[in-house]
Amino acid sequence: YYRASDAALLPTWSDPFANVTLEAIPWGTPLVTTKYNGGCEVVLPGNNGYVADHPTNAKALAEGINTMLSRRHEPDRAAAISATVADYTMARNWSKTLAVVKKAVSGIPKVNHELNEK
Q1: Count of other CB atoms within 10 angstroms of residue 6
Q2: Which helix (DSSP H) or strand (DSSP E) does residue 61 occupy?
């Protein structure tokens, strides 16, 4: 359905990182969403989507939809949109997650077992 769509609209009030973000964009479907979607960080306004300031801002949402629809017939548009999230792979996710865990663990003081044995 994403591939057949000209745009996807998600006027969310609260999503830590809506799945639709990485479902629509890789298919070349621009996403119009709000700043309340944690995934809005991968939306490049005017390129692979549009980010409205608030879910009730119908004017901004309409502007985003119109912007995306006006560009839908550009050559290689779907490929250009897909390329914007090509680096968001499971391998990258795991790598970044492990880096955060390692950093957190490195800050935990080591237990001195010799003192505990006395």
Answers
A1: 12
A2: helix 58-70
